[in-house]
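Input structure tokens:
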């Protein structure tokens, strides 16, 4: 089963950024570039790449959305020296959110935005770095503050109920720390830090009542590859909460987080074949909100 894949939205820099990240992180590779024509954003580069063996995707589709720290990535390292080396590569041209140093929760840690605005929490994690190198972290802020625990329990319930084994892998959630009565402006009992598993993949979540002036948006979404139309129908029905956000397999859930529910074979349909086939498939999915696998296959066949 293909993994849930972080999807990054860039103005024009998707390929450049992917090549940069591949150069920064060990055991990484650029896997595919497909150019889509005739989209509302014009010609778009869709890039697939792996960082530390884990899948990522990126698209160049115009200056519509900007990264912010509501979604960041824990870059887990096996040593303090590795933290320092990654920090040195990621920080030029970026912005420090929490200085590199020693903290109660990690011997070596720092939080930054890189030169593209993407947020990384570089942390010495020991053995955890060997299990899953990159862990997406969701921060519930502004009007979403206080919803972290409810949200992660919701996501776990959705993936647990997926049909036909579409949730292969462990799925659960655990709150590891809560705010206390002396942690104002945060509310006692809200989530300071939690982790949850979806299909065996680790995610983190937290509430933060401090003034942030940002929230979830489409700059970062999570792509759920589906093998069957039944799986697409299921995840779409469970997750989509904003009809205005439904387009080309994209949706927003009730917490404002963006997902893509897409056929696992879509990347192959777009990566293989001649330009005419790619254009047929592209024009077919541009007309869709929820993906129709049979219609995409008919378009590919011509």
């Amino acid at each position: 089963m293909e993994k849930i894949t972080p999807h990054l939205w860039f103005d024009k820099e998707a390929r450049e950024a992917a090549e940069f990240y591949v150069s920064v992180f060990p055991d990484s590779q650029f896997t595919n570039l497909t150019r889509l024509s005739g989209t509302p954003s014009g010609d778009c580069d869709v890039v697939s790449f792996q960082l530390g063996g884990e899948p990522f995707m990126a698209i160049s589709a115009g200056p519509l959305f900007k990264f912010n720290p509501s979604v960041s990535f824990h870059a887990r390292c096996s040593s303090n020296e590795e933290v320092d080396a990654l920090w040195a590569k990621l920080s030029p041209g970026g912005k420090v959110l929490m200085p590199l140093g020693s903290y109660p929760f990690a011997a070596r840690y720092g939080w930054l935005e890189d030169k593209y605005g993407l947020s990384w929490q570089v942390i010495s994690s020991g053995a955890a770095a060997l299990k899953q190198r990159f862990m997406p972290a969701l921060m519930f802020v502004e009007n979403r503050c206080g919803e972290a625990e409810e949200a992660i329990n919701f996501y776990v319930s959705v993936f647990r109920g997926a049909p036909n084994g579409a949730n292969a892998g462990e799925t659960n959630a655990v709150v590891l720390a809560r705010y206390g009565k002396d942690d104002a402006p945060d509310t006692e009992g809200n989530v300071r830090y939690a982790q949850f598993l979806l299909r065996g993949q680790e995610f983190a979540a937290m509430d933060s009542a401090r003034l942030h002036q940002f929230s979830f948006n489409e700059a970062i979404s999570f792509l759920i590859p589906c093998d069957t139309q039944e799986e697409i129908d299921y995840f779409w029905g469970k997750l989509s909460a904003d009809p205005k956000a439904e387009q080309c397999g994209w949706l927003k859930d009730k917490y404002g987080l963006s997902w893509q529910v897409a056929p696992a074979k879509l990347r192959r349909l777009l990566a293989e074949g001649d330009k005419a086939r790619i254009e047929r498939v592209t024009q077919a999915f541009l007309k869709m909100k929820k993906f129709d696998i049979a219609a995409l296959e008919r378009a590919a066949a011509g």
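The first strand starts at residue 5 and ends at 10. The radius of gyration is 19 Å.
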